[in-house]
Amino acid sequence: MRGAEPGGASPLGRAVAEQALSPSDDPALDAAARRLSMATGDSVVGLVFFGSRRTGAGRANAFGAHDLFVVVDAYRPFYDALAGAGLTGKRPGLMALVSRWLPPTQCSLRFEAEGVHVKASVIRCDTWRRETSARRRDHFCIGRLFQPTRILYFRDEDARGHLLEGLVSSHRETWCWCRPWLPPSFDAKAYGLSALRTSMRWEVRPEPAGRADALWQAQEDLQSPVFEALLDELAERGEVAPVPDRPGTFAPRRPVGRAERVRLEHYFRWSLARATARWLKHTVTFEGWLDYIVRKASRHGGESIDLTERERRWPWVFLWGRLFRHLRGQKRKGSLR
C-alpha cells in the first residue's frame, strides 16, 4: 500500500510536510539517528522526532531525552538488530512480545559517543496508521503528533508517504476531539492553544500551571500555518463559518451536544487508564526506568522525590502508591493555580 503523497494532496498536507521535512538543527541527534537506522537496517520504516526538544521548549537538564517515534515493520527483527548492535540489554523475544500490548513501547537508547539519550516509542507501521486515525484506541500517539515533529529518517518514498499521512491525520483529527473545549470563536492561534490545553489536561504526568501556554508559545510560529490550513479546510467542509469583520477567525456551525461531550470525556478517561497501564509495561521495557521516572516526576512536579532503600529494592511493592499520590497532588495544585 502506498502512503499519501506529501506535496499536492491538500494545503494542510503541504503545511505539515513543510514542517516535518524541515532541515535539522541538531547534528548530535542526526548522528544518533543515522547510527540507529544503520544498526537496524530495513526493519525501521522511519524515525519521527517530537516533544519539547523538537520545539525548543525542553528545559535544560542533565537527563533530558530526545523523544522519537520509531516506526517498524515488525517488532522481533527490530529488537534483534538493536540487541545485535549493542544498543539494548533487553531480550528481543520479550520486547517483541510485550510490544503487542498497549503500543507504542518505550525503550531507552543511549548513544554515548554522540551524547544523546533517545526515549524511543516503538510502534509497528500498521499500528501507526491506526493510532493516527479515527480508528485509534487512545490519545497517546495523536496527542503528541498534532504538535511539531520532524522526520529524521525514512526508509524509502513509500515510508515517507506513510509517515506524513499519519502526521496530517493527527492534525485533522484535532477537530474531532477538541470541539467541546474550544472558545466560541477562534483563529489558528486560539485553536492550537485550546487543543494543546485540552490534550495536556488529560495526561498522567503532572504539569505546572501554565505549562500548556508555555509550550504553545514555543511552537506557535511552527503550528500557526498548519492550523490556518486546517481551519480553511474545515470551512470548505462546512464545519466552521468565518466570523464577519474578523479575518482568519471562525466559529463552529453546529453546537456541541451533550452526547458528544460525554463521549469525548469517556474517550479521554479511557486514554488516561491505558496510559497508566502503559507505565507498568515500561518498567519491563525501559532500562533504568526507576531513576528516569523519579527524575521526570520531580522535574515536572517541581518537588524532589527521594527514594528510600526499601522503595529502591522493592519498587513494585512500595513505590507505586507514593508516586501516584505525588501525581494526584501535583494535578490538584495545577488546577488551583
Strand content: 5-15%
CATH homologous superfamily (4th level) name of the domain at 11-170 = Beta Polymerase, domain 2
The rough form would be described as globular
**CATH fold label of the domain at 11-170:** Beta Polymerase, domain 2
Note the gap between the termini: 49 Å
Number of strands: 7
* Uncertain regions spanning at least 5 consecutive residues: 1-7
Rg on CA atoms, Å:
20 Å
**Could you give the order of the helices and strands?**
HHEHEHHEEHHEHHHHEEHHHH
Largest pleated sheet = 5 strands, mixed
What's the number of helices?
15
CATH architecture assignment name of the domain at 11-170:
2-Layer Sandwich
Mean pLDDT: 87
What's this entry about, in short?
The protein contains 15 helices and seven strands.
Tell me what the structure shows:
The chain has 337 residues and is α+β, with helices and mostly antiparallel strands. It is built from 15 helices and 7 strands. It has a domain of 160 residues: Beta Polymerase, domain 2. The chain has a 5-stranded mixed β-sheet with strand order 3-4-2-1-5, with helices on both faces. A two-stranded antiparallel sheet has the order 6-7.
